[in-house]
Amino acid sequence: xxxxxxxVACAASLLSAAAVAQDTQPYTDDPVDDAATRAADSADxxxxxxxxxxxxxxxxxxxxxxxxxxxxxxxxRDQKKRALLTKxxxxxxxxxxxxxxxxxxxxxxxxDPAGAWTARLVVGTRSHIAGEAAYIGSAQALDAxxxxxxxxxxxxxxxxxxxxxxxxxxxxxxxxxxxxxRRYNISNSAVNTSSVADAANVxxxxxxxxxxxxxxxxxxxxxxxxxxxxxxxxxxxANLSTYxxxxxxxxxx
Length: 253
Description:
It is a single chain. The chain is an alpha+beta fold. The protein has three helices and eight strands, in the order H-H-E-H-E-E-E-E-E-E-E. Strands 1-2-3-4-5-6-7-8 form an eight-stranded antiparallel beta barrel. The N and C termini lie far apart (119 Å).
């Protein structure tokens, strides 16, 4: 009887060990169980791969959306900028200066190149057709017999121009033409026995070409101007026509 009990205990221990071993093995000797286990593992792996692919696609879509948003915002800003540059008529106020010289040899032989200055109002900075009203002035050394060594030939005048803006964007090439009235005077010389008159009124027909850059509200402008003069002679037999190059800066409203 004691031996029988010992045999039964040994058999129970063996059965228990076999059950534990069966639970710890991933696959069994049963083909059906092995196929089911492999199918479950494959399904889990496929699900994980699908989740990773979905995450990658979502990230890529987010990157594309961000790029599209930036492009759209840039396009919207450019459109607003163009609208500001072309909205309404446009009014500009500019001041500046440059260099001026007489075209005729007789006048240029007794004068140095002049420093020139201007203050200008432009109506129509955002239109193809614009108008300008300006004050102009100049001063240059006068080297003639009968005047002081410190003598200066100065001028002050007013000018009106019709202007054609080729473009209405930030860069604005243009051409202009009109009328100028200018008065010349000799200054810094108590005595004048030269052939140069003490003062003279001169009429001019100016033509100009220039390039303006508009970055609202700032405006910069570079211009070449040719002025054909006629009227009371300042210097006998002298051509008082001038050419000038100037630069201006101002604001647009």
